[in-house]
Every structure is written in structure tokens, then in C-alpha cells.
Amino acid sequence: MALILKNLSLVTPRGRVIERGYLMIEGERIAAIGEGAPPQALITQSLVTTLQYPQIIDATHKLAIPGLVNAHTHLEQTFMRGYSANHSLLDWLRNYIWKLQAAMTLDDIRLACTLGMIEAIRGGATAIVQHFKLPLTQEHTDAVLRAASALGVRLVLARGWADRGVNAESSASIMADLGRLFSDWHGGADGRITIANGPLAPWRCTPELLQRTTELARAHGAITHCHMNETQDEVAMTLKDSGMRPIEWFASLGLLGDDFDAVHGVWLSDRECALLAEHHATVAHCPGANMILASGVAPIVKLLQQGVNVALATDGPASNDGQDMIEMMRLAAFMARVTTLDPQVMSPSQVLDMATVNGARAARLPGGQLVVGAPADIVLIDMNAAHIQPIGHPLSSLVYSARGSDVDTVFVNGRILMADKQMVGVDEVALLDECRERAASLAKRAGISAA
Ligand SMILES: [Zn+2]
Question: Cα of 79 to ligand 1 centre, how many Å?
Fold first, then answer.
């Protein structure tokens, strides 16, 4: 199948905008991009390769951007929204999130994650790094992977684990399940699903298992993805345990590399920033979650200046409380400027890179740029709205004016997941009804009311 989008604006690498151009998708790939009207030769080429006329869609007032990569979330937390007000990270985890998570049934997980994926797609994400905290049984994990496979989104499942503290799992069970996931799911669903090693946080993991799981991930060409330096309390815990700050401790264990994602990285010393740069590691920046939980401000401008790969993420829907990556771009820009008092930092193009190409690099995914030959992971934003028009500069309008609800059409691997703001093949009304009912009975079972 071939499809040509015409009369649209496109964001190409390094923030270059084609104000009026075309884009052609053939099968799973971007087959052509150009300025002006699509040339007749493209239609001829499509006839030769696909033996049929391409579908041509007039996309006037749409802006095509690379699909956004949400570099860190916990999708199952859609059933836990609304509990984060007035709590610090550790209080919120212990008194709400851990209790709710422990009470989730298989159906709860499937529905909560499906809802989270739909919300993410609606907010412009084509790829999601799902740091999955609830591998209670193999079926729980497989339910998430099957849901992603059916919806068509790209998903990296970082298998969460902790072998110390509350709900600690045995090292044998963690190693066996990770091994199973790599052999059964890594590269599944036409390459849309990959597996990662997901230790939950330094203070919840033993050094031996951190090293063994990282070795296993490396043997499969996969990443290790861990919450790091999110709050001052957590840094203090690792300092007490190991005599080192978390990033220093991980470096001493040989865990840092271009296959390592430090999620949050809020409280980083100069030495830790330098270590991340030296090892070509990634920081997954979650500005929304860091603000709502009053965790602090990550030194993103400094990290970028030192050459660290910074990706952008929402974190879980319970600490954000949404999955809107367009809003995260805006928050990241605002947060960087107000904390450095420098209006020159964090240009719209730099923020978009964090949400696209840097995220793809962090998660070891293809794409992240609108270029010929790349997978057709594309988002069309409807720019014909009162809160956006008239457009001064398309990238500024995207980052400062657009909202997740302006996402109009979403392609992943050439497949249309959403068109004209409607999810394709999903009964959202019925899904929302079912989720409401399930979330209420979950809170009741866990003995929790919103506070
Ligand atoms: Zn998280």
C-alpha cells in the first residue's frame, strides 16, 4: 500500500521545516519527502512497486513530525491517577502506589495499560518505554505485551525488578523471567516490541544482580533502564549503603554505557554529570513528574552542554498525571529557562529532538526523524486551531501552543493507529466505561481513597 500526504508542513532533521510539501509512505517506510506538490514520477513509481495508484490525502494545515518517544512511563498507573497531590515521592509510593499495584488483577493490568497506550498515542507518542513494575506473574507481563502488539504502538518493556526491600523477588526468578522475555518477545510484532532490563532503583537492588542482569541485556543488545537520583532522600540512601552517590556506584559496577538510561537524574553532582557524559549514557527527563512530586529540577542544560543524550518522558500517569508528550516538550522548555534565567536555552528544535531522535537513541529504536527510508512513525498535528493560528514559526507553535488534543493522525510502521482524532479499531467509549468500573473496585480492594 502506498499513501501520499500533500499540502502539509514537515519537520525534517535539525529542525528544518518544509512549509508546504509532501510525504509518501510505502509499506512500513517513508518512501519520499519533498517541497511543493508531489511529482507525477512518484505516482508512477508507486504503480511500478505496488501495482496500484497511491492513496492521496490533502493534509492542508497539518504539521508532520516524527513520532514522539515517551522515554519512561508506567502505563498501569492510569488506574492510580489523582493520588499524588500533597505527597513526597516515598510517602506516595508506600501509602498509595505500592498498595494499589499489589491488588491489580490480570484484567486490571490489561485494561489500565491499554488505556495508557491510547492516551499516549493521543498525545503524539508512537513509541513508549514501559518500565513495568508489576511482573507479578508471567501472564501479567504478557498481557501488556499482547495489548501493545494488538494496538500497533512501539513498546520497549523494561522488566522492573527489586531484590531488596518491599516485595523483593528472588534473583533466580528475576533472571529466569528476563531470559524468558528476551527469548519470547525481544524483536516481536515485526520488531515493534523489545525488552529491556529495568531495575527499579539503586536502593532496591543488590550489586550482584545489577551486574548479572546488565550482562544478560547486553548479550541481547538491549538497554538497562533505572530510576536514578530522583530525590535527595534516595541519593542519601545509596551514599549510606555504598559510600558513593548512585551514578558513581553504578559506574564502579560497570553498568554505565550507551545502553544505560538514567531516569530522572534530578540530583546529580558535577562528577555524576561527567560520568554520564563519559559513558555516553542517557538521562530520561521527566519534568512533569519532578514538579508534581516536588522532587527538584534536573540539570538538563548542563547535561546537554556536556554531550549527554537527554530524552523526554512523562513518567507514570500517577505522577504527572497524564501522558501528553507535547505538554512535556513545553514544560521542559519552560523549566530549563526559568531555572537558568536564560531565554536562549532549550530551543523548540532542541526540545523536539529530545522527544524524538534522542528518545529513539535511548531506547535503541529505529526512527526519530522524518527521512527517506526510516520507519513510517509519523504524527500529524492539526495546526488549524484558535490557540495556534496564526503561525509565526511552526516549531515554536508546536512546542508552545499545540496540545496533545491537536494530534490528528498517528502512523507506526506505516500503519494508521489514529485518523481524524479517532483511534482506529478501538471502542474507546466502552473501554473508558470498563476502566472506570475496574479502577473503583481496585481502590476499594486496596482500602484506599484519594487524598
Ligand atoms: Zn518512573
Answer: 15
DSSP helix/strand/coil, 295: coil
- What is the distance in A from the centroid of ligand 1 to the CA of 336? 20
How far is ligand 1, taken at its centre, from the CA of residue 264, in Å?
8
Verdict on whether the full-model pTM lies above 0.85: yes
Query: What is the CA(354)–ligand 1 centre distance, in A?
Result: 18
For the chain, the domains span 2-66+369-423, 68-363
3-state percent breakdown (helix, strand, coil) of the chain, nearest 5: 45, 25, 35
Determine the topology of domain 2-66+369-423 in CATH. Answer: Urease, subunit C; domain 1 (2.30.40)
pLDDT score recorded for residue 450: 58
Pairwise CA distance, residues 333 & 347, whole Å? 7
Centre of ligand 1 to C-alpha 132, Å, is 9
Q: Give distance in angstroms: CA of 352 to centre of ligand 1.
A: 21
Residue in the block written with cell 518505554: 129
Coil, helix or strand for 192?
A: coil
Using an 8 Å Cβ cutoff, are 158 and 356 in contact? no
Q: Mapping DSSP to helix (H, G, I), strand (E, B) and coil, where does residue 46 land?
A: helix
Distance 201 CA to ligand 1 centre (A): 9
> Quick one: angle between helices 138-151 and 106-122, nearest 10?
30
Third-level CATH fold of 68-363: TIM Barrel (3.20.20)
- At how many degrees (to 10) do helices 138-151 and 171-185 cross? 30
CA 204 to centroid of ligand 1, rounded, Å: 14
Q: Extract the runs of DSSP E, i.e. beta strands, from 229-363.
A: 260-264, 282-285, 309-312
109 Cβ partners below 8 Å, 6+ apart?
A: 76, 134, 140, 143, 144
Contact 126, 153 (CB under 8 A): yes
Cα of 18 vs centre of ligand 1, distance in Å, is 36
CA end-to-end span of the chain, whole Å?
Answer: 51
pLDDT at 84: 63
If you measure from the C-alpha of residue 318 to the centroid of ligand 1, how many angstroms do you get, rounded to a whole number? 10
Ligand 1 centroid to 131 CA: how many Å? 7
Q: How confident is the model over 320-351, as pLDDT tens digits?
A: 788 999 999 999 999 999 999 999 999 999 99
Can you give the pLDDT at residue 166?
Answer: 76
Going from the Cα of 64 to the center of ligand 1, the distance in angstroms, rounded, reads 29
Report helix angle 207-219 to 171-185, nearest 10.
10
- Mark the ranges of the chain whose per-residue pLDDT is less than 50: none
Cα 396-400-406 angle, rounded to 5 deg: 100
What's the farthest any 2 CA atoms get from each other in the chain? 68
- 403 CA to centre of ligand 1 in angstroms: 23
